[in-house]
Amino acid sequence: MVGKVLGLAVADQASLLRLAILGLISIVAIGSRLYSVIRFESVIHEFDPWFNYRTTRYLVNNGFDKFWNWFDETAWYPLGRVVGGTLYPGIMVTSAAIYNALHLLNIPVDIRNVCVFLAPVFSALTAVATYYLGKEVKNATAGLLAAAFIGIAPGYISRSVAGSYDNEGIAIFLLVFTFFLWLRAVRLGSALYGALAATAYFYMVSAWGGYVFIINLIPLHVFALLAMGRYSNRLYVAYSTFYALGTLASMQIPFVGFQPTFTSEHMAAMGTFGLIQLVAFTHYLRALMPAGHFQTLLRAAVAMLFALGAGGLVLLTMRGVIAPWTGRFYSLWDTGYAKVHIPIIASVSEHQPTAWPNFFFDLNLLMLLLPAGIYFSFRELTDNHVFLILYSIFAAYFAGVMVRLILTLTPIVCVMAGIAMANVFETYLDFRGMTAQTTGAGDTTEDAKAPATSAAAAAAASVAASVPPGSPARPALGKRLYAYFPKAVVMVNFMYFLFMFQLHCSWITSSAYSSPSVVLASRAPDGSQHIIDDFREAYYWLRKNTPQDARVLSWWDYGYQLAGMADRTTLVDNNTWNNTHIATVGKVLASDEDTAYELARRHDVDYVLVVFGAMLGYSGDDINKFLWMIRIAQGVYPNDVSEQAFFTADGQYSIDDSASPTMKASLMHKLCYYRFNEVMGAQGFDRVRKQKLPSNVELHNFAEAYTTENWLVRIYKVKDLDSLGRSHRAADAFNGPRPAAPRRVPF
Q: Is 519 part of any domain?
């Protein structure tokens, strides 16, 4: 009999051990995401997080009412932006609630640090939610393994490191937690868990636009169960509760509003809700009608309702009552759609199709365990396993179409890997059958008495029971080693793979996902680190040396950072809601200097900012993005901008003296290469394009205001008309009086 430890029974000891393991997993999940803070400092990363941080700071300083009704006049000049009605407020409200709670406890933490460390803390909660999901579909072993995997998987770490203050930082936790509550509701037929799943879904809707994945996957699960003939009252209660409460709650978010009732992305959920009501009604009629009459009525009703539903859907879509699929969703089914019709979507690197190395990069060993997890799910095929299979298939497809969606694939891959590894451990770490065989038939140890939990253990136990009483108590050493050897070999191999997976995850997190985009680092020949802080240097200069109401034109990539760090008015930013306005900025940068000057004056531009990486070899600069600016501008202004004009006669994208006249005359080319040959010398070389520098670049209408230490960011002042003199060529092209600045109105 196994004795008590710390006064706890065996079951309590196991629970305490699982709790301790889960706590360690949470600590590792948080710690693995702190490389960026340790190596650099507590700083907000990337582009979108700067908008989230700026709005969170506004919420903390001004209260929820002003935040909800905030009209930001400094964004999308001269249009402005209704902030409260055009964002998902979940991450801001969460951070503000944590900040206020800490201050209520007299813990004086800055809101910036709350934002920086929010994603790592929620990654620990994601590990806990994944544990419960794995436990729900398999057992505690699978749950712990799944939690350990998602705690360090690069596919999730990529959007949850310290400083990555983006919506996905809390959304993946809500995604996993919603699915856990849904599966629990289906298994128990519980309206309570259905309501909890709806509540978690509402939180998800408030946090991230990826909620559409939930509201399509859960109806797909219900539809699949109905098609398989697995209708039950449990399923009816769970889905009816979830859909009704979840839809009503989601409509309380202003940015979502009535979309669940008239957009194509939500029609599957609504249709499934109607279908399950019909199925429930038919089951009710079955008990009241003769079988022959019921079958005839059922066939007629299904055919009529299907025809009416399909026809109504088509008619309402054609009449505009139901909004068609958006371009982002079309691009999930046709990878070439965005490039042809919506180049601004295709221009974003995370919207590109996923290359095979990315799967190995972000998932590694988990990618190989996914098929095994699907196999074990098919072998059991409960209602919950049907959900796991559907999630795996569709998430894998969407992750292949768009590299960003590896993020939604990672949770199910971790769960499936946990199921696969749990089955391996159950088979190859179960030595009870061997113990029973090696002891004598008269041995009454606990191991010999313990019931087998697998087919292999049960077979070994039956062999042990057939051993005659007079047999030796223990076989020879060689036989015992031979019995243990195959299991030992398998486990040693798996432990090696898991160890290498951990090393891979640590290396990827450290080297690829822990460097903020606003602070760059390079290595000197002696191995020492050199920090390149040109972005913050430029934004700080703008903040300190330009008027408070100065308007800065840049490509939309830098809009949120300019608003957050420089605190200046921008024409476009990362919201990208107005393609025409962005195309206008692209037209300014693609036009010749005189035309660009006239456009800049019409839009009240005071400064123009460009990012130029030719000195450092920074490949993400504006010259490399220039073709996308041209394509976007051409889509709106086809008579003024032509992509082919920027290529040489032999179709090359050149920036040196062999470049096309249109390229050399463009404002982007001039702002980037102006005076650069003075620094690099006569034999200067563009380290990104691997081309010689143009020999002569002149500017007349724009004055260099500031260039950062490493020439990564260049800022130019738009000259006043008086400073240009009567010989200014743009004045000749200006027809009529200059129009007054448009009135700022919400879009």
A: no
Question: Is 416 in the same domain as 435?
Answer: no
Question: Quick one: 303 and 389 in the same domain?
Answer: yes
Instruction: Tell me the CA distances in angstroms from 172 to 39, 46, 95, 176, one per residue in order.
Output: 26, 19, 16, 6
Cα 430 to Cα 557: distance, rounded to the nearest angstrom: 55
CA distance 123 to 27: 10
pLDDT at 33 over 80: yes
- Per-residue pLDDT band for 148 (boundaries 50, 70, 90) equals very high
pLDDT of residue 703: 95
Q: What is the mean pLDDT of residues 376-389?
A: 95
In terms of domains, do 438 and 462 share one?
yes
User: Is residue 5 a part of any domain in this protein?
Assistant: no
151 domain residue, yes or no = yes
- Contact at 8 Å (CB) between 193 and 238? yes
Distance CA 209, CA 166 (A): 12
What kind and span of H or E run contains 387? helix 383-401
For residue 265, what pLDDT is reported? 86
- Rounded Cα distance, 116 and 113, in Å: 5
pLDDT of residue 736: 35
Q: For residue 703, which phi and psi values (nearest 5 degrees)? A: -110, 135
**Do 180 and 95 reside in the same domain of the chain?**
yes
pLDDT digits (tens, 9 = 90+) for 586-629: 999 999 999 999 999 999 999 999 999 999 999 999 999 999 99
109 and 123 fall within a common domain: yes
Stretch among 473-477, 539-543, 549-553, 576-580 having the lowest mean pLDDT: 473-477
Per the CB < 8 A criterion, the answer to whether 68 and 84 are in contact is yes
Q: Which domain holds residue 470?
A: 429-511
End-to-end Cα distance, the chain: 74
Is 473 in contact with 439 (CB distance < 8 Å)? yes
Q: Is 670 exposed, middle or buried (0-12, 13-18, 19+ CB in 10 A)?
A: buried
**pLDDT computed for residue 456 by the predictor:** 46
The pLDDT-based confidence of 453 (bands split at 50, 70, 90) is very low
- Domain at 555, CATH number: 3.40.50.12610
Residues 6+ apart with CB under 8 A from 679: 615, 711
- Give the helix/strand (H/E) hosting 608: strand 607-611
E strands, 625-707, where?
685-686, 691-692, 702-707
Share of the chain above pLDDT 70, in %: 83
* Residue at 298: amino acid letter: L
Strands 607-611, 713-718: parallel, antiparallel or unpaired by DSSP?
antiparallel
Where would I find the beta strands (DSSP E) of 351-427?
none
307/438 same-domain check: no
User: How many domains is the chain partitioned into structurally?
Assistant: 3
Q: Which of 407, 424, 441 is the last residue of a domain?
A: 424
Q: Say yes or no to pLDDT of 419 above 80.
A: yes
Residue 479 has pLDDT above 90, yes or no: no
Spatial contact of 529 and 522, defined as CB atoms under 8 Å apart: yes
pLDDT at 447: 41
Same domain (yes/no): 456, 405: no
- 278/228 same-domain check: yes
Residues 363 and 361: their CA atoms lie apart, in Å, by 6
Cα(221)–Cα(182) distance, rounded to whole angstroms? 11
Residue 746 domain-assigned (yes or no) = no
Compute the mean pLDDT over every residue in the chain, rounded to the nearest whole number: 85
Mean pLDDT score, 507-526: 86
DSSP, res 138: T
